[in-house]
Specification:
This protein is an alpha/beta fold. Helix 3 links the parallel strand 3 and strand 4. The longest helix has 21 residues. The structure holds NADP nicotinamide-adenine-dinucleotide phosphate.
Length: 406
């Protein structure tokens, strides 16, 4: 009989508890695949267990504490002691990833993190293994289930952001404090991790610009429907001529885009590369048992030699001004010449209009237009000029549009 494979479990909350249960349930299956019987060597929580003792008795450490410290210290110490590490910690990887990957390389151990991005959707594995030699041009992702649920509800029921958020909280799709989900920071951390994998570049959370969904209204979704668009919080990581751009914004998608039909608390990622055209992966983005299953998948991979080590990164410039199409929503006084003046301001910056919907609102009118792709700085310069016109009844509202159709 071979020696058991001993797992030190740090954290026993939603994911740690689910992982503990799943491991017990799947022990025979893991043994059948790897030839070794997995067992929990010790569990660390705030009130239980001792880290050094658990480390000494473990072959591998699973970190499910979350946050930066003491998770960072424990992960570094585990790797320095020659132990493989599996983690679901997006905060830690997106802010201290380079330090951790350097330590993994230095000590010849594996650092696996499938559950840190898009729950059970195996995007980390696909990028780091299946597409490791592909030249990835772009990734678009719905990587936050809370915001996707809220936007789906606003679109299907016509309810307000606040109502949809309250529903999400009641159903357990949103935390009591949902700020990092709804302001885009959670998705930004995940996109930093994906960008690093896709481009082999050192990207951290601070390189990712992000915007949330708090300011979106049911009106935006209603008008979008008329234009054949659906609204999502999309993370984008792409190569540009000069470097790479990584960002998270509310974005309109045309109906035929693979992410347009991803509704509810689901996650999905499209990976684009000339050689493969486009691959889309989708599935549940969070939840105890689903995330625990991604963690267990990483444990099984780490148990099967030879270990694959993360490659060294190189530096690529982070580009912040990129090209995008836009949806522009304007409330104006309903009088002659208004459209011409708006078109002139757009034209001054080189923006051209693809489609317009106009609605009368008594003495005012609402103009909703889609503008062809333009450098973002030029578009916002035009919006600034339009915002100062005396017939404007409220500040212009702009949302990016992804035009690609597959
Ligand atoms: N929840 C999800 O759906 C989900 C999805 C994907 C990824 N993740 C990631 O999975 C990780 C765990 O999340 P979770 O939802 O399971 O968190 P959680 O329910 O809050 O559990 C955290 C666990 O860590 C322990 N812990 C906290 N601080 C500690 C410390 N200083 N020393 C020792 N133990 C400590 C807690 O101990 P006590 O029991 O004593 O409080 C608890 O057992 C995070 O990185 C999160 O981002 C979560």
């Amino acid at each position: 009989m071979s020696e058991p494979f001993r797992i030190g479990l740090l954290g026993h909350g939603t994911i740690g508890g689910a992982f503990d249960e799943l491991l017990l349930e799947r022990t025979e299956a893991v043994q059948a695949v790897t030839g070794r019987r997995p067992e929990i060597a010790g569990i660390l929580t705030r009130s239980r267990g001792d880290f050094d003792d658990i480390l000494g008795r473990s072959d591998l450490i699973v970190e499910l504490i979350g946050g930066l410290e003491p998770a960072r210290e424990y992960v570094l110490r585990a790797m320095a002691a020659g132990k493989h590490v599996v983690t679901a910690n997006k905060q830690l990887l997106s802010q201290h990833g380079d330090e951790l990957w350097d330590a993994a390389r230095e000590h010849g151990v594996q650092l696996r993190f499938e559950a840190s991005v898009a729950g059970v959707v195996p995007v980390v594995r696909v990028l780091s293994e299946s597409l490791a030699a592909a030249h990835v041009d772009r990734i678009h992702g719905i990587v936050n289930g809370t915001t996707n649920y809220i936007l789906s509800e606003m679109a299907s029921r016509g309810c307000s952001y606040a109502e949809a958020l309250a529903d999400a909280q009641q159903l357990g799709y949103a935390e009591a404090d949902p700020s990092e989900d709804v302001n885009g920071k959670d998705a930004a951390a995940k996109m930093a991790i994906l960008a690093r994998l896709a481009f082999g570049a050192a990207v951290t959370l601070s390189d990712v610009s992000y915007e949330g969904i708090e300011h979106l209204t049911a009106d935006d979704l209603a008008y979008a429907r008329e234009l054949g668009l659906s609204l999502k919080l999309i993370g984008t990581a792409e190569r540009t001529g000069e470097g790479i751009s990584v960002r998270v914004h509310p974005v309109f998608l045309y109906g035929s885009h693979p992410l347009a039909s991803v509704n509810g608390p689901f996650n999905a990622v499209t990976i684009e590369s000339e050689a493969i055209t486009e691959v889309t992966l989708s599935g549940p983005g969070a939840g105890g048992s689903q995330t625990a299953s991604a963690v267990l998948g990483d444990v099984v991979s780490a148990m099967i030699p030879p270990p694959s080590l993360p490659g060294a990164v190189h530096r690529l410039p982070i580009v912040t001004d990129v090209t995008s199409a836009f949806y522009l929503h304007l409330e104006v006084a309903d009088r002659p010449g208004v459209l011409a003046q708006i078109a002139e301001r757009l034209g001054l910056q080189g923006a051209s209009v693809k489609s317009v919907v106009q609605r009368g609102l008594g003495e005012n009118a609402r103009l909703v237009m889609v503008v062809h792709p333009i450098l973002e700085s030029r578009f916002f310069a035009a919006v600034d000029l339009i915002g100062h016109l005396d017939f404007m009844r409220s500040p212009p509202r702009a949302i990016r549009v992804i035009e690609e159709e597959f």
